[in-house]
Amino acid sequence: MISRAQTGGYKLEVDPLMPLVISSGVVLAACAGMVNAIAFETSETLVSHVTGAVSKVSLHTVGEHAHAGKMVLLVSFFLLGSMISGCIIKRTAVKMAYMGYGVAMTASALLLISSLLVFKASEDAAVYILCVACGLQNGIMSSYTGSVIRTTHMTGIVTDVGLITGRHLVSCFKRKCCHKIPFADEEPGETRKLILLLLLLLSFLLGVAAGSGLARALHELSLLVPAAIALMAGTGYMLWTYLRDDIQDEVKILQAEGKTSSSSPKSPVSPSVQPLKAVDAEATDQPCSPVESLAPPTADDVDP
Predict the structure, then answer these.
(1) Of 18, 23, 26, whose CA–CA distance to 1 is shortest?
(2) What is 13-146+200-250's CATH topology?
(3) pLDDT tens digit string along 164-179?
(4) Which of 115, 214, 229, 239 could form a disulfide with 126 if both were Cys (CB 3.0 to 4.6 A apart)?
């Protein structure tokens, strides 16, 4: 699990397709699908993405100003949730032994419960809290090989699935029919990433179906289901991280090396000192030492 970098430090980076990461992404996508379906069934508002809300801001600005203001609030509260996630999770790379993932999932569960508690008093306030929860959850999933993967909306996931599938098709066509096609890579797309994306897409769809059925049967009480799932996932991850002795040893190594690197003084380097260049002896008639080459000329060396 530990890998030493060139700088001598340790990195607790893990494979994004390890079972723990896959299961976490599937759980998050399913919860987002359920929350989005429940919000739509109970208040006719989609809360897991803001593309439609941003479009409606401009559409309703001309006439329905009140509705446009509500769309602005939806986007703002989603942004607030993303900001909270950025405060909790400071890095986009998947790293083990980091409590931030569990804290973020637990906070998302508590927000879902808070939305349920205020639903009877103010349906709009409940929807805004759901937007905060979705924005918070959306920042939990990490990046995978430079491509950002989200769990509350499927636009980017469907786009990446199409890109990888297109590369596979072109690669297959090149191997069988033509060997000189300049508009695509020779190697097929990343199959492992495609598996992850398809799993996230399928889990989101299943979450939407389950959330719709729950909302029709239990109405706003159906929010307890995704809240319970997120709460168990968050607390379970934190307990798993805390009880793993090997992970705690790695954390101690990181802390010890951080203190050592911060306390060790660095040698000052003068910017005015330039490195000496080696003298090529073959380029001159007689070999000369570096000391002789740097010595100033004498009176005998100057021709009258």
Answers:
(1) 18
(2) Growth Hormone; Chain: A; (1.20.1250)
(3) 888 888 777 777 776 5
(4) 115
